[in-house]
């Protein structure tokens, strides 16, 4: 059964609610004040099922909106998710101010289909009705309701005249509306929150994407003071009837567990847990109505997106103002966070006096601060090519890459849709996949080149050192712990680099020492290896060599880098074997007593306090011991 959401639009007292009641038998005015005053104040709902020529059933959900200028904000909460609009114009009054504003709103929201309805046709004669029809047709020309594509239907909600023609037109228009994607990630903007006796908390809204089933877990966006608010769906209703699930395009009511009415409000959104991020900034393409005043950079506006509304500051990209009728790229900085995704439409209303001035589409709901080449990036997003959009989003993350989960949160596209673009040869050689991480190949190649360059530079500066450590090399390139090993392994496979343990060097690069340098290296190593923990002063060892001080120091640097020698203080260097033996002795001593003080340590090692204190501090740093007062606990 195909579901289509129909919204009303039009001036106050032009018969929108009466028309919905005449079509469905349901009075959409549910508030006592609405019935007392005879006007619609808040959005109301009704539904209707109609047979189609193919024998199937069409389910229409009606959203009736207020026409009074004071309640346009409520009107905006209703029309954000509609598929088709009934532009209602009273035959006895013709086009009025809210007719124009509501019609502008529908165009700004990119409503593609609708029907113009002349209500109260029973109150005017045929000649007047024909004149009003001509006025309306002229008003709608060159719009999505152009009379050449969509006829203007005259009806009377009182007598029933024209209602059958309108139902046929609804069936025809609904057939042209593509079904919403029920396989996408679910999003339900909340338009009502209330408590129902015997059930508890209930929310309603138009399911704009995806599917929601009984027992699903959902997350509330934004969550207010809490980090996360999650709810469980206890029950689902579609158009007032219990259902196993609700799918995109349906009016949906959910009975929720794990939350109170105080936690929820109109404007919040329900979505799968941990899939998205609320945002306070969004890069957009916005359009200004021809009737609006010029919009200056940093102007404040009232922003409406689906059922959400807040104040926003418009930061224009690359210009100081937008002229009436023009389109521009900008960033919206919201006073309150919400869940937005690329493709979402929004409406802007002037800050004061409050009237509709424009709208647009979200391009990027999770912008990166101070991003270079922002405008070319946004133009790619606006172009709508899915593959190009994914490449651009991956590329802008540099060699840090972006995870699939982050890409889902940025685009709103399900994992299978994203992965389908990189099946087989990912991105035709443009994307490298590292587990769940995606990296743009040109960026990765640049990182690889910088790594090779850094190794070569290190060799030139340190001719007597075997190579640079992996950690130092990663730090120099500012590469992440996920991407660096992948880049390095690739370079090794390509035979551009070689590794020896934690050391990286150019292929065939080895430390070439002269005979006197090699002999001195042996002397230094032997001096420390043979002395155990009672090591000589390094300066004394170097003083006994035949080398000059600079070459001798380079040999020491090589021994330290290869971790043959270990420096534990400014003037104490030990051979690694001596320190390894010390670790074993400490662990053996733990079986006798888990605590050791300086005196016992001196007895155990046979060293003086000069060596004992630095050695104990070294053991603390290595997490072999932990100091507690004047003692150490052997870990």
What does this structure look like?
With 635 residues, this protein is an alpha+beta fold. The chain has 4 domains: 2-175, Rossmann fold, CATH 3.40.50.300; 188-271, Beta Barrel (Elongation Factor Tu (Ef-tu), domain 3); 279-364, Translation factors (Elongation Factor Tu (Ef-tu), domain 3); 515-634, Arc Repressor Mutant, subunit A, CATH 1.10.10.10. It contains 19 helices and 35 strands. Strands 7, 8, 9, 11, 12, 13, 15 and 16 form an 8-stranded antiparallel beta sheet that branches. A 6-stranded mixed beta sheet has the order 2-3-1-4-5-6, with helices on both faces. Helix 7 packs antiparallel against helix 8 and helix 11 crosses helix 12 (470-477). The two termini are 68 Å apart. The model has no long low-confidence stretch (mean pLDDT 90).
Which structural category fits the helices and strands?
A: alpha+beta
CATH superfamily of the largest domain: P-loop containing nucleotide triphosphate hydrolases
Q: What is the total number of structural domains? A: 4
**Which range does the strand content fall in?**
25-35%
The whole-angstrom Rg is 36 Å
Provide a count of the helices: 19
Residue share in helix: 25-40%
Say how many strands there are: 35
Biggest sheet details: 8 strands, antiparallel
Which stretches are low in confidence, meaning pLDDT under 50 for 5 or more residues running? none
